[in-house]
Design brief:
Oligomer: single chain
Strand content: 15-25%
Number of strands: 16
Helix content: 25-40%
Order of helices and strands: EEEEEEHEHEHEHEEEEEHEHEHH
Bound molecules: flavin mononucleotide
Number of helices: 8
Number of domains: 1
Radius of gyration: 18 Å
CATH topology: TIM Barrel
CATH class: Alpha Beta
Largest sheet: 8 strands, parallel, barrel
Shape: globular
Structural class: alpha/beta
CATH superfamily: Aldolase class I
Length: 316
């Protein structure tokens, strides 16, 4: 049985619904010797800011129960460095896999300037706007302030006609509210979710293990939160969603797809097994074939639920 993966999402054909998540595959080239990138759906680059950023002091990563914590601090070569050093490789080597550029800034002007500086370039499909990084000062400022988020997305929308995807933070009372704001402000899609703020303590030194003191937690530990955020976003708006958080295998990915994601991103799992994204793709294909589902879109958001309840209070 031939199954059809993702057609017409963001105006493109995706040969696979599986992409590599921002910050976990560099700018593609770093992963090119490990897996055949042109066989996956695409990659989302490491963040690109207007000016180069050095990132945070070490330690920058540590293992946590069922996951990891990172405080890389959005280290990146800046807009000019990306255009001069990274984008040419992507343009030349990624013919089948789509590229989203993850964009970050400290102000609306920063974001807009990065998008304006990239928009005439070839070699990528669209933008993933990162308003949700918990390990730099102000990293979630736009993602947790409804007015600021609306202004930011509106301003970027005015600058580009390319697919504009906003990467949401789970660190809000209801992701659905923020999803709707993005849709109303003109976004084309959502990524859900970024990491959760966390801390690991070195009990011998009695200090935080991470140089930045706190960082973002990712990996299998956050899978249920990511699925839930995807489901809330799907109920609140009609935008296509890229589901992210803790995906290791097809079972994890299909949870996101049933909850409403039409694409998924694999992050931390690639550090354990660089082939994780390929395996997720094969597993989804097998699931579709075994269940007689001809196209992935028939599965997207097909979760059977009662009327959505009010989100639980944090104390449960
Ligand atoms: C080392 C590392 C660096 C990351 N850097 C970025 C980044 O630059 N921009 C971004 O939007 N997300 C970044 N993320 C978040 C991931 O893209 C993803 O949203 C998160 O890790 C959850 O997915 P996972 O559990 O599959 O890793 C980073 C994650 C890790 C582990």
């Amino acid at each position: 049985m031939t199954v059809t993966m993702c057609q017409g999402v963001f105006g493109a054909e995706f040969q696979s619904p599986v992409l590599l998540a921002s910050g976990t595959c560099g700018y593609g080239q770093e992963y090119a010797d490990l897996i055949p990138l042109n066989q996956i759906g695409g990659i989302v680059t490491k963040a690109v800011s207007l000016e180069p950023r050095p990132g945070n002091p070490p330690h920058r990563v540590a293992e946590t129960p069922e996951g990891m914590i990172n405080a890389i601090g959005l280290e990146n070569p800046g807009l000019a460095g990306f255009v001069g050093e990274k984008l040419p490789w992507l343009r030349e080597h990624l013919s089948q896999a789509h590229v989203f550029v993850n964009v970050v800034g400290r102000s609306i002007g920063d974001f807009v300037e990065v998008v304006a500086g990239l928009d005439e370039e070839q070699g990528f499909l669209g933008y993933e706007i990162n308003v949700s990084c918990p390990n730099v000062k102000g990293g979630t400022m736009f993602g947790t302030d409804k007015v600021a988020l609306d202004e930011l997305v509106t301003a970027i929308r005015a600058e580009t006609e390319r697919p504009l995807v906003v990467k949401l933070t789970p660190n809000v009372p209801d992701v659905g509210d923020y999803a709707r704001i993005c849709q109303d402000a003109g976004a084309d899609g959502l990524s859900a979710i970024n990491t959760f703020p966390g801390m690991v303590v070195d009990i011998d030194q009695r200090v935080p293990l991470i140089g930045n003191q706190s960082g973002g937690v990712s990996g299998p530990a956050i899978l249920p939160m990511g699925v839930y955020a995807t489901w809330r976003a799907r109920q609140a708006c009609t935008l296509p969603i890229m589901g992210i958080g803790g995906i290791r295998n097809a079972t994890d990915a299909i949870q996101y797809i049933l909850a409403g994601a039409c694409l998924v991103q694999v992050g931390t799992a690639s550090f354990v097994d660089p082939y994780a994204a390929m395996n997720v793709h094969e597993g989804i294909q097998k699931y579709l074939t075994e269940n007689g589902i001809a196209q992935l879109s028939d599965l997207v958001g097909s979760l059977q639920t009662e009327e959505a309840p009010t989100p639980p209070a944090p104390s449960g």
